[in-house]
Amino acid sequence: MNLNQLESIYARNKENQMDPEVLIQGYGRMQLSQLEAKVVRMFSELAKTAESGNWESVEHNLNKGLIQTMLKAISDTYTELEEIRKRGGTNSRGINKR
Predict the structure, then answer these.
(1) Is pLDDT at 45 greater than 90 in this prediction?
(2) Alpha-carbon gap, residue 11 to 8, rounded angstroms
(3) What's the predicted TM-score (pTM) here?
(4) What pLDDT band is residue 3 in, cutting at 50, 70 and 90?
(5) Is residue 17 part of a domain?
(6) Is the dihedral of CA 91, 20, 82, 93 positive or negative?
(7) For a pLDDT cut of 90, what percent of the chain falls above it?
(8) Can you tell me the distance from the alpha carbon of 68 to that of 6, in angstroms, rounded to the nearest whole number?
(9) Is residue 61 part of a domain?
(10) Contact (CB, 8 A) for 48 and 41
């Protein structure tokens, strides 16, 4: 794992390897599935904000809000899961190929 990486798998989920607990820098921890659902909600709210014409808020949320951090956490988690899967062994069971 990259030492500069701020987001990563915090704890593996033995029941579902594809839904680990993820550490989000400056935010906390949550299951990957919860994080993905939260990002979907954030984009839905962002679309409503854009429809209302509040472009300053849209710009702030896209560039300075948590969306970037959460997207990076999701991407880094899938990269880390893929690395675990490629190493093979019992730890890779249940991790789907991307």
Answers:
(1) yes
(2) 9
(3) 0.85
(4) very low
(5) yes
(6) positive
(7) 69
(8) 12
(9) yes
(10) no
